[in-house]
Every structure is written in structure tokens, then in C-alpha cells.
Design brief:
Layout lengths: L2 H14 L1 H8 L7 H10 L7 E5 L6 H15 L5 E5 L2 H15 L2 H6 L6 E3 L5 E3 L9 E2 L4 H6 L6 E5 L9 E7 L10 H16 L1 E11 L7 H7 L1 E5 L5 E6 L1 E5 L3 E2 L2 E2 L4 E3 L4 E3 L3 H13 L3 H9 L16 E2 L5 E4 L2 E4 L2 E2 L1 E7 L11 E8 L5 E9 L4 H15 L3 E5 L2 H17 L4 E5 L5 H17 L3 E3 L5 H9 L7 H12 L15 E3 L6 E3 L1
Parallel strand pairs: 1-8, 1-11, 2-6, 2-7, 7-8, 16-25, 20-23, 22-25, 23-24
Antiparallel strand pairs: 3-4, 5-6, 9-10, 12-13, 14-15, 17-18, 18-19, 20-21, 21-22, 26-27
Helix pairs in contact: 1-2, 4-5, 12-13, 14-16
């Protein structure tokens, strides 16, 4: 194969694969699976909708978006971008990054027609711009660009609140337009919304939007983007339904202890990239010292909560009428609506005076996503048969088919004993083990991420009897003496799935139970 053929093959590889392009222009930067997934998401050739990418802070999303823009320009020099950021400093930084990629030796080698290259007096290649090339905008010099006659810059970088008069673009990028300065006031959020609307209005017909950021507030622009819908019509202009405007890529910092961008030491650079528990703990300590823990959850776990509503209070508890809870046709129902029942056990394999409790929570979930706390149990023991007997008593009452058991050293033995006992006795329940989270801080974060949004959205209902008072203390107190019940509740919610929506019964044969014979007759 000739040198030119090899060059052509490599050029084709880099133009068809955004991840490989990123690696060749940044050979010393660490890109993990997160970034591979982001690059694949942005470069999907079947893409037909706008895209919103939400990832935690410090995860290279802006760097990756700059690479994407440079890649698109190289593939099609006639494309033009409005690059909108939250602050002007980031706008200039992103412009500089994109220009540096286009001026790099790598790009000059594979795509020499992109810019106006000349040799200086020392026979070194030098880029001599013939069009605008400043900190806020620039134009490439490719022949296709010149032939298009487009007077708009290749990239025009600006920030929230800036003017867009006189410009039209084929592509829009919104990069971190929600910031510390504009997220927590209505006026700040309105300014972001106005900027979003203004730039959307000057986009060319058929243009697509790429938005990247980290959520700050439940009412910020990213939620607006996720809620956007458009009407769909068939070829005869008949309305056929609606569709979300945005495809969403969303990844929290970690899930069940697995980091989305694991911390890695790069050989030869003596530099580490990514996150582990120590790095996340360091970040968290800064938010905690500033009294901004709601922002820690928002920016690393992507669960924005209004600061005024973050700490749960008793007035957020709702109660259901237990008399309306009925069992019929092999299923629990509330007001006639079927519930899927689930359970979880938080194991404490000890019975000491000051030790933790083992807790079991049983919940029912209806097709609308409402959660009913059906039963709670709490006890101390180190006897395997007691764990099984307390669980099977609840299972016999509530007919749950699955229970999740947190498996620390003792918990794994308990889970195995319960599985063996179930097989022996023919009980109809599956035991699912889950590794117990050893780090107390992480455990609280997981519980908060599961429990708090559901209380705030009024989707959890309490009974008025049993141990509900103990659970409510664990929910509202910042540092309760025990958190076993709320941990079991969070685990039960994690594994729950709603029943299918009930369909109409117009064409269904109805039955009724005969009170004398226990059988059924046609209605």
C-alpha cells in the first residue's frame, strides 16, 4: 500500500469515528468509556433530533464538545456554529480550543486544505488567516467554504445575555449555559431561557442543537429541554402524535459504586484523570463546608433539588386509608388499582444492645408510580432462622415475589440460608443479593437520591399504623440514631416495577365469585 493510500485510509477512519479523531488530536489525554459513549451519541449517523448531554462537573464534557465541533468542521467546512456558553471566559476558551485543533500539526497533515498554510523564512509551516481569526469567532479557508459564499463565521462564540443580531447558523451548541451566577434566581433562569429562545430562532431550517451541561436546579433550562415536545404529522399532514425534541444522554458520577469515569494514572504523564471515592469525597467536603449539599447532589448525581425543598419535613408525608387496601384475584389493590409488591431487607447480623437493627420494608407500586408503604419490621438477631421466619411471615401476608437483601459478610450468609430454606419449604419468593455499601457517606447519598425526589413529588404514601413513626424520624432527622428502615425502603423502591396499565373492559367477559361455592359464574 502506498503512502497516499495509507493517508487516505487514516483520513477516512478519523472522519468516520469521532473517538479515533479525539485520540489522534489529543494523544496524551485520557478518554474513558464515558467519553466513547458521548462521542458515539453525538456522531450517530441516524440522528434526527436535538441532543442534550448531562454529565457531572469535571468530566471533560466541554473539551469533548470542542473536539466534536472541530470534527464536524473538518468533515463539512460549510457548517457554521453558534457556540453559546454561560460566561464569556468559557466561550473564549472553547474558541481557542477549536482553533488549536484546526491549527495542529495533525490536522495540517491529514487535511491541509482546511486553513491557509504558508512557509516562513525558516521553511516552517505557518497558518496565516485570511479571514477573521480572533478570540470570539473565526472562519476556515477551505475551498468548499469559499465556494459556499456564506458570510457568517465558521464559529461564533458568545455567552448568555449577548446579542445575536445579524447571524444565522447551521448548528447550535449550548455549553454549560447554567452557572452559579444564574441558576438560583428567577431572573437568572429567565435570562438563560431568553438566550436559548433567541439563538434557537436564528438557526437555519433543519439545524440541530447540541447541549451539554450539569443541572443545578429543577427548573433550569435543561429540564425545559427535556420537557420540549413537537407534534408529528404523516405525509398527508395528518396529526399522528408527539415526540420529545431532545435525545438525552445522562450519566451520574457513579452507580452502585461503579464510577462512570474511573480514576486512572496515565503512564508517562504521571497524572491521574477521573474519579474515585477519595476524589469524590474531596469534592463533597467543599460543598459541605459551604452548606451547599443540594448542589453536590445536583452536579455529581444529576438530581437537582430546590434548595428550599431539599430537607424533607413532616408536612411532606401523605397517608392512605388502609381500609381501602384489598386482596383479590391473587393481587393486592388500593381503591381497585392493582399493586405490585416488593420487599427489601437491611441485614445487621448481631443482637448487641447498641448494634443496628435488621429492617424489612414492604411496598406496593401502582401503574401510576405511586408507592404505598405496606409494612415495616425491625429486629435484632444473629439466628438465621429468625431472619427467614420474619421475612416469610411478611411474604405470606403481602405475596411479594422478590426480596432484595443487602449482603455484607453476615448478610451473604443470611441470604444463602433464606434461599436454601425457600427451596426446602417451597415458598414462592426470590432472594436477590446486593452488596452492602460500606461507606456511610455514600449510603446516605444513595438513600437521598432515591427517597427525597419521591417525597417531593408526593408519590409516597404512608400507613398510619405499625412502625411508620420510626421510619418518619429516619427520613426527617439529619443524623438519626438508626437508618435501617429508610435504607430498606430505598432498596425496595430500587427493585420495584409498576404493573401494566389496566385496559378498558368493554370487550372482556366479566366474572363474579359465587358466595356459596367459591367458584365463578359468567355475569
Amino acid at each position: 500500500m502506498s503512502k497516499q493510500d495509507k493517508l487516505a485510509d487514516l483520513r477516512q477512519l478519523y472522519e468516520s469515528n469521532l473517538y479515533e479523531f479525539a485520540r489522534v488530536v489529543y494523544p496524551n489525554r485520557y478518554f474513558g468509556d464515558l467519553h466513547k459513549q458521548m462521542f458515539a451519541f453525538w456522531s450517530n449517523p441516524e440522528r434526527k433530533r436535538d441532543q442534550l448531554t448531562l454529565v457531572p462537573r469535571d468530566h471533560q464534557k466541554s473539551v469533548c464538545m470542542g473536539i466534536y465541533v472541530a470534527w464536524i468542521i473538518i468533515k463539512d467546512p460549510t457548517r457554521t456554529f453558534a457556540y453559546v456558553t454561560g460566561v464569556s471566559d468559557l466561550a473564549q476558551k472553547q474558541t481557542r480550543q477549536i482553533k488549536e485543533i484546526l491549527e495542529s500539526t495533525v490536522v495540517r497533515y491529514y487535511w491541509p486544505d482546511m486553513l491557509n498554510w504558508v512557509k516562513d523564512e525558516n521553511s516552517n509551516w505557518k497558518h496565516v488567516p485570511l479571514y477573521k481569526w480572533n478570540e470570539n469567532e473565526f472562519e476556515v479557508y477551505h475551498p468548499k467554504r469559499r465556494e459556499s459564499g456564506d458570510k457568517n463565521p465558521t464559529v461564533k462564540a458568545t455567552s448568555v445575555g449577548s446579542s445575536n443580531t445579524g447571524f444565522h447558523f447551521t448548528d447550535l451548541v449550548f455549553d454549560d449555559i447554567v452557572t452559579e451566577k444564574n441558576f438560583d434566581t428567577e431572573a437568572g433562569r429567565k435570562e438563560v431561557e431568553a438566550t436559548y429562545a433567541a439563538f434557537s430562532s436564528i438557526a437555519s431550517t433543519g439545524s440541530l442543537v447540541n447541549a451539554v451541561g450539569t443541572p443545578y436546579h429543577p427548573k433550569d433550562i435543561y429540564q425545559t429541554m427535556m420537557d420540549e415536545e413537537r407534534e408529528l404529522f404523516d405525509e398527508n399532514d395528518n396529526f399522528i402524535g408527539t415526540e420529545k425534541n431532545y435525545e438525552v444522554f445522562k450519566k451520574p458520577v457513579e452507580t452502585e459504586g461503579v464510577f462512570v469515569w474511573p480514576r486512572t494514572l496515565i503512564p508517562g504523564l504521571d497524572k491521574s484523570y477521573g474519579f474515585n471515592w477519595n476524589e469524590l469525597s474531596h469534592k463533597k467536603s467543599k460543598y459541605k463546608a459551604a452548606g451547599r449539599m443540594e448542589q453536590f447532589y445536583a452536579q455529581y448525581y444529576l438530581e437537582p433539588n430546590d434548595p428550599e425543598l431539599q430537607k424533607l419535613s413532616r408536612d411532606q408525608f401523605q397517608y392512605y386509608n388502609e381500609a381501602l387496601l384489598k386482596y383479590s384475584d391473587g393481587k393486592w389493590r388500593y381503591k381497585g388499582n392493582p399493586l405490585n409488591t416488593f420487599a427489601a431487607m437491611d441485614v445487621a447480623y448481631t443482637d448487641g444492645k447498641y448494634s443496628d437493627y435488621t429492617a424489612i420494608a414492604v411496598i406496593g407500586l401502582d401503574s401510576d408510580g405511586y408507592i404505598y408503604i405496606l409494612d415495616l419490621d425491625r429486629f435484632k438477631t444473629n439466628k438465621f432462622h429468625v431472619f427467614y421466619e420474619r421475612m416469610i411471615a411478611l411474604q405470606s401476608k403481602w405475596s411479594f415475589r422478590k426480596i432484595q437483601v443487602e449482603t455484607n459478610a453476615g448478610g451473604s450468609l443470611v441470604a444463602q440460608y433464606m434461599k436454601d430454606a425457600i427451596r426446602e419449604n417451597g415458598a414462592n419468593v426470590a432472594v436477590e443479593g446486593k452488596m452492602k455499601i460500606a461507606k456511610e457517606g455514600k449510603k446516605r447519598e444513595r438513600i437521598a437520591a432515591i427517597i427525597e425526589p419521591r417525597y417531593e413529588s408526593k408519590s409516597i404514601f404512608h400507613p398510619k399504623s405499625g412502625m411508620i413513626g420510626l421510619l418518619e424520624e429516619e427520613v426527617v432527622l439529619p443524623n438519626p440514631s438508626h437508618d435501617d428502615l429508610v435504607d430498606a425502603l430505598a432498596s425496595a423502591i430500587e427493585i420495584s416495577k409498576p404493573p401494566a396499565k389496566q385496559v378498558g373492559t368493554q370487550n372482556v367477559i366479566q366474572f363474579k365469585t359465587h358466595s356459596r361455592f367459591g367458584g365463578r359464574v359468567f355475569r
